[in-house]
UniProtKB/TrEMBL annotation:
Species: Fagus sylvatica
Family, as annotated: Belongs to the thaumatin family.
PROSITE patterns reported for this sequence: THAUMATIN_2 (PS51367)
Record's keyword annotation contains Hydrolase: no
Protein name: Thaumatin-like protein
Gene3D superfamilies named in the record: Thaumatin
Keywords, in A-Z order: Disulfide bond, Signal
A Pfam family it matches: Thaumatin
Entry-linked SUPFAM superfamilies: Osmotin, thaumatin-like protein
Cross-referenced InterPro entries: Osmotin/thaumatin-like_sf (IPR037176), Thaumatin (IPR001938)
């Protein structure tokens, strides 16, 4: 029987590097449950047209930071993939950067401090599609450090967007699901209650 010690050091290093990277990468399952077409976008990752019920699986490398997934609506693209969307537009089918507001964002950073993933849904860039962003493996929540400070200074922010219903941490290597128009979400387009002059 051959052992790893019989292989040259460079091959051993390559084996351990590939094992570590693949074991801490994340898989994102992006699902369109909307009654209309959504052009899903990811940075990094590109973009895809998703008709109702279709999904797109995206593999993301460990260490990826400042990343996001969003949906685009009412898009038209030519044969070369250039075009325009009414919301979340990035100018091409396979986005190379971030989309133009308004767009609901699933934001994440993988394998960061303490080998934790940080995930949230952001409406800072506006809202265009109802979204669910959740882990498919592992359990998520605030870190023990943020809990420590929150107990002692409840009115102070202990981590960005400090809100137990907004930002979560998950163990590195967790896989995720992003669902556009999850069951029970309001129909789109949303109707505003009252008028803008009521403010």
């Amino acid at each position: 029987m051959m052992s790893l010690a019989n292989f040259p050091l460079s091959i051993q290093f390559l084996f351990f590097t590939l094992f570590f990277i693949s074991s801490n990468a994340a898989t994102f399952q992006i699902q369109n449950d909307c009654p209309y077409t959504v052009w899903a976008a990811a940075s990094p990752g590109g973009g895809r047209r998703l008709d109702r019920g279709q999904s797109w699986t995206l593999q993301v490398a460990a260490g990826t930071a400042m990343a996001r997934i969003w949906g685009r609506t009412n898009c038209n693209f030519d044969g070369s993939g250039r075009g325009h969307c009414q919301t979340g537009d990035c100018g091409v089918l396979e986005c190379k950067g971030w989309g133009v507001p308004p767009n609901t964002l699933a934001e994440y950073a993988l394998n960061q401090f303490g080998n934790k993933d940080f995930i949230d849904i952001s409406l800072v860039d506006g809202f265009n599609i109802p979204m669910d962003f959740s882990p498919t493996t592992g359990s998520c929540g605030p870190t023990r450090f943020s809990k420590f400070f929150k107990q002692r200074c409840p009115d102070a922010y202990s981590y960005p967007q400090d809100d137990p219903t907004s930002t979560f941490t998950c163990p590195g290597g967790t896989n995720y699901r992003v669902v556009f128009c999850p069951r029970g979400s309001p129909s789109f387009p949303l109707e505003m209650v009252g008028s803008m002059s009521d403010e």
